[in-house]
Amino acid sequence: MSYLTNFNNESAKQILMDIIRCVNQPENSKKLSEAKASAGKEMILMMQHVFPLVMQLQLEVIKGHGFPGNREGLVQFSQLIREMERDDMEIARLRSQIRAIYLPPIAINTTNDILI
């Protein structure tokens, strides 16, 4: 847990930028493009094919910054980031950039929606 003593907004931004760089490396980008192509616009397929790849890349990056390289480490990192993004717009922007990889924007037409 010593990695938490030095964890602050700046280190959070650095880790998020490292995740984005890792995702954009040619071999990772190619894998993600192939996974997205096989998923098409189906959200369930995106979660089955793309989401696990992004999570694996995030695990590799956070492990390099001292977090446990397992599910618990990723959950802990994600919770810390969610707390920090409330007060830091740059952290929120970086997190949104990562989420956009596996959660495509959803168009919602609110003018035609009727609550029943």
From TrEMBL:
<keyword id="KW-0963">Cytoplasm</keyword>
<protein>
    <recommendedName>
        <fullName>Protein C10</fullName>
    </recommendedName>
</protein>
<dbReference type="GO" id="GO:0005737">
    <property type="term" value="C:cytoplasm"/>
</dbReference>
<dbReference type="GO" id="GO:0009791">
    <property type="term" value="P:post-embryonic development"/>
</dbReference>
<comment type="similarity">
    <text>Belongs to the UPF0456 family.</text>
</comment>
<dbReference type="Pfam" id="PF14974">
    <property type="entry name" value="P_C10"/>
</dbReference>
<dbReference type="InterPro" id="IPR026317">
    <property type="entry name" value="P_C10"/>
</dbReference>
